[in-house]
């Protein structure tokens, strides 16, 4: 069964850190770009970070640049999102996702993996709450 499973969310104080994990089963993650998205209450889902397949390049949106880092461990078939200096506005449900077509250009590089509309396969999400 093909699955993406997020974990690592929780409650953290402002300025704190969390590391989210996106574990894949049923397919080999290193052949795919992975994106991290978030959706805050009352807001639309937004793309946050992505990591490509072919050249391993990464992209972060400006609001998290310098605080979040996406990485992958192919041996563990897992992609991570290290989140530091967390702010209350980072509170959201965080999802990892991919494009289910292995031939999609979404997977090629960071210039392509940031095309957030192209993601069609999603995990169930993990809640991140930043509050004192």
| Low confidence ranges | none
CA-CA gap between termini: 39 Å
Helix content: under 10%
- Please give the number of β-strands: 11
| Subunit organisation of the chains | single chain
What is the chain-wise order of helices and strands?
EEEEEEEEEHEE
Average pLDDT, all residues: 95
Rg calculated over all Cα atoms? 14 Å
Structural class: mainly beta
Shape: globular
Task: Quote the beta fraction.
Answer: 35-45%
Architecture overview:
The structure is a single chain. This protein has one helix spanning 110-113, and strands spanning 3-7, 10-12, 18-25, 34-39, 46-51, 58-60, 68-73, 78-83, 92-98, 121-122, 126-130. 37% of the residues are buried. The chain contains one helix and eleven strands, in the order βββββββββαββ. It starts with a strand and ends with a strand. Strands 2, 4, 5, 6, 9, 10 and 11 form a seven-stranded mixed beta sheet that branches. Helices cover 3% and strands 43% of the residues. With 132 residues, it is mostly beta strands. It is globular and about 45 Å long.
In short:
The chain is mainly beta and 132 residues long. Helix content is 3%, strand content 43%. The strands form two sheets. Strands 2, 4, 5, 6, 9, 10 and 11 form a seven-stranded mixed beta sheet that branches. Strands 1-3-8-7 form a four-stranded antiparallel beta sheet, with no helix packed on it.
Topology:
Elements: E1 3-7, E2 10-12, E3 18-25, E4 34-39, E5 46-51, E6 58-60, E7 68-73, E8 78-83, E9 92-98, H1 110-113, E10 121-122, E11 126-130
Parallel strand pairs: 2-11
Antiparallel strand pairs: 1-3, 3-8, 4-5, 4-9, 5-6, 7-8, 9-10, 9-11
């Amino acid at each position: 069964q093909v699955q993406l499973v997020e974990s690592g969310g929780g409650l953290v104080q402002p300025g704190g850190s969390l590391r989210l994990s996106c574990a894949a089963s049923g397919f080999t993650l290193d052949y795919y770009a992975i994106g991290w998205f978030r959706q805050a209450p009352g807001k639309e889902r937004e793309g946050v970070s992505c990591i490509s397949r072919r050249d391993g390049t990464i992209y972060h949106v400006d609001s998290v640049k310098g605080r979040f880092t996406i990485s992958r461990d192919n041996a563990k078939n897992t992609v991570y999102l290290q989140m530091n200096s967390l702010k209350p506005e980072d509170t959201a449900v965080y999802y990892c996702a991919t494009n289910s077509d292995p031939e999609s250009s979404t997977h090629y590089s960071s210039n392509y993996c940031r095309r957030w509309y192209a993601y069609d396969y999603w995990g169930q999400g993990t809640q991140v709450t930043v509050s004192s």
